Amino acid sequence: MEINPEKTLLTKQANFYASLSAEDIPPEVMEKARRVLMDFLSETAAGYKEGEVASISIDYVKETGGRQEATILCDGAMVPAPWAALAMGIMAHSIELDDGHRWGTCHPAVAVIPAVLAMAEKKNSSFTEILKGIVIAYDAMLRAARAINPSHLKRGFHSTGTCGSIGAAAGCASIMGFSADKFAYAMSMGGLQSAGLQEMLHDHPGIKTLQPGKAALAGVLSAEFALRGAKSPRTLFEGQHGWLKAMCDGEYSEEGLVGDLGKRWEILLTYTKLYPTCRHCHAAIDLAREAKETLGCTERDVESIHIKTYRLGIVEAGQSFLPSTFEEAMFSMPFSLALAVRKGNVTLQDYTPELLADEELRRVARAVKIEEDDHMNAIYPE
Q1: Can you give the pLDDT at residue 1?
Q2: Which residues span the domain enclosing 228?
Q3: Are residues 76 and 114 in the same domain?
Q4: Cα distance between residue 224 and residue 196, in whole Å
Q5: Which residues of 238-259 are buried (b: 16+ CB within 10 A; e: fewer)?
Q6: Domain count, the chain
Q7: What pLDDT is stored for residue 382 in this prediction?
Q8: Cβ partners under 8 Å of residue 256, min gap 6
Q9: CATH of the domain at 347
Q10: Are 151 and 205 in contact (CB under 8 A)?
Q11: Residue 66 backbone zone (phi > 0: left; psi -120 to 50: alpha; other: beta)
Q12: What is the pLDDT of residue 204?
């Protein structure tokens, strides 16, 4: 059955986003955009050269050189906009403090804001235009992620990368002031470049940061190509070989993608992290801190810690009990709990080589028992 390009899901989104003015966006939505931008800038500063991949990315884009279009935050070097977006996306994702979206199982800021900022600097955009671009980028990315999860995640994909390229392209299209047609082409090219797998959680988790960086780069490229006349299928989502069929096992929601446009602003449904760890650790850390405060205990009092959680929490954060690197520690629920019991908190300063090697902390981490809970599985991600 032939699909009318003028009536596709992508066309509906692009028509809406291209027609938006900043005045059309509710004040509370623009305020949330300002807040997520501030959060992003903070985590980017903290992630500057934190980890091997961040340092590699900065060195690479500076060595590559090119036109001075956008600044690498914290470093100060000016490089082509796509390279700036790449480096900033990697930096911001280096410390696991980036915001997230439960229903999309992804981190929007690190994938889309680098692209918006790089393009905005190149175009000399206003602060209001930047906030509008962030709102649209979040909405496009998170609607795509909502539409295909949790099936997408269960297949092994990393939504931050796969959906981030669509959102980054939409944000850049907004900064460029594209018509609906060019907006659709840019988003489509972003979707064609979707990439990201979860395999890095099992080996070398530090490379996870490459995926939002690449999504941000893809967003800038998509907008630049659309500006120069490149076209791309409007049937991106529902086409015969389209994104929805490729990205999940037929369990997708068109309502999640285009329902309540202009009423359900996905940026309002994001959370801000309090701990530099995988979010699946956070509830357990909260409870460990509460137990320490209530009981006045230290790690020496701990014989065992029993955790019940959902399957994904175990897969992503319950496999590494004795991490040996900063990157591994951020995905170790057992070690994070040991830290929480000792220090009453978990901060960036706690994942040091000395503490990772601390025998008492390692004893407590080994004493953590994690059990999969059927009820939690049933209600996840609520």
Answers
A1: 62
A2: 5-269
A3: yes
A4: 22
A5: bbeebbbeebbeeebbeebbbe
A6: 2
A7: 72
A8: 103, 143, 146, 147
A9: 3.30.1330.120
A10: no
A11: left
A12: 84
Residue 84 corresponds to which tokens in the numbers above? Answer: 């700036």
Q: Is the peptide bond before 381 cis (omega within 30 degrees of 0)?
A: yes
Give the Cα-Cα-Cα angle 163, 164, 167 (nearest 5 degrees). Answer: 95
Distance CA 79, CA 69 (A): 6
Euclidean distance between CA atoms 51 and 44, whole angstroms: 12
Task: Name which of 159, 57, 175 is nearest 111 in CA terms.
Answer: 159
Separation CA 62–CA 129 (nearest Å) = 28
Q: What are phi and psi of 29, to 5 degrees?
A: -75, -45
Rounded Cα distance, 253 and 237, in Å: 11
Helix H, strand E, coil C: the string for the chain is CCCCHHHCHHHHHHHHHHHCCHHHCCHHHHHHHHHHHHHHHHHHHHHCCCCHHHHHHHHHHHHHCCCCCEECCCCCCEECHHHHHHHHHHHHCCCCCCCEECCCCECHHHHHHHHHHHHHHHHCCCHHHHHHHHHHHHHHHHHHHHHHCCHHHHCCECHHHHCHHHHHHHHHHHHHCCCHHHHHHHHHHHHHCCCCECHHHHCCHHHHHHHHHHHHHHHHHHHHHHHCCCCCCCCCCCCCCCHHHHHCCCCCCHHHHHCCCCCCCHHHHCECCCCCCCHHHHHHHHHHHHHHHHHCCCHHHCCCEEEEECHHHHHHHCCCCCCCCHHHHCCCHHHHHHHHHHHCCCCHHHCCHHHHCCHHHHHHHHCEEEEECHHHHHHCCC
User: Which residue carries 């609906």 as its tokens?
Assistant: 180
Q: CA-CA distance, 323 to 337, in Å (whole number)?
A: 13
The answer on 368 and 230 residing in a single domain is: no
Q: Which residues of the chain have pLDDT under 70?
A: 1
Closest CA to 213 of 54, 60, 36, 41: 54
pLDDT digits (tens, 9 = 90+) for 155-164: 999 999 999 9
Residue 156's domain is classified under what CATH number?
1.10.4100.10
Residue 275 tokens read as 């701990």
Return the structure tokens found at 15.
Answer: 């028509």
Those residues whose C-beta lies under 8 Å from the C-beta of residue 352, and which sit 6 or more positions away, are none
Q: Do 305 and 244 sit in the same domain of this protein?
A: no
Residue 78's beta-bridge partner residues? 71
